[in-house]
Amino acid sequence: MTTITLEEARRHAEDTVRRSKTSFGAGMRILSRERREAMYAIYAFCREVDDIADEGGAPDEKMAGLSEWRREVDRIYAGAPQTPTGCALAPVVRRFELAREEFILVIEGMEMDAQGPVIAPSLEGLLAYTRRAAGAVGMLSMPVFGAPKNKTADDFALSLGDALQLTNILRDIEQDAGEGRLYLPRELLDEHGCPASPDEIADASGLPAVRAALAQMAREKFSATRVALGDLEWRVLRPALLMMGVYERYLDKMTARGWANGQERVTISKAEKLAIATRWFFAPRLNR
Fold first, then answer.
1. What domains can you pick out in the chain, each with its CATH number?
2. CA-based, 20 to 30 A from 16: which of 47, 88, 166, 202?
3. For 128-138, what is each residue's pLDDT tens digit?
């Protein structure tokens, strides 16, 4: 078996972040080197399991790949990782005392996608998905940022994870539908007379009302995040706040233009992102 040095593992994780061109990159770069490398390792893990779920292949093949990552998590915590990303993560989980169960929750979220496209889950099922796909990532990130290990920090991470994921779902309805997915909760679809079908959702007359209702849920999650932030040291959480600012801006732009069918996916310019970063880096406003 080829031995992977820690430097090679860290470089692999950083390269994964760079290639992805993720919106989270700016927030990572403002961290100290130790914390930045830790976040690169966490991101590389999330990217790799997400790629398994999203890329082509039969469900059995995807589940096998995710099962292997479950075993790699076990090896990481046993001090014997075998993959480059696992090697980058091993010192991180020790240094920041990261919870093993949060890595498993991330994998569970990817398994939900891998087992077949998610189509019109119950609201409970949707929130179970957001807890795994986004909340678990937040829970892994908070110790790296330097946040305290308490309920307020957990509330911040979980509320923000829900807010980001719900906003992403709103932005990607048509794109997801083209891939056979429909993350909108069945209760809202039924309430507004929408078909629980990716093939039919884009033209459904009730879709604007469903979007508006889900947007309100996202807005409430952002508000809960802001409440938790009031009892935390905001400077420590700057990387998370940069993402919060960007995604809240997405939500604001979608809300301002209205929820009519057939509109293009909302985007944010580099200048807008820079303005958001400046606001949160130097003078965050805790209340809107």
1. 1-115 (1.10.600.10), 117-288 (1.10.600.10)
2. 166
3. 999 999 999 99
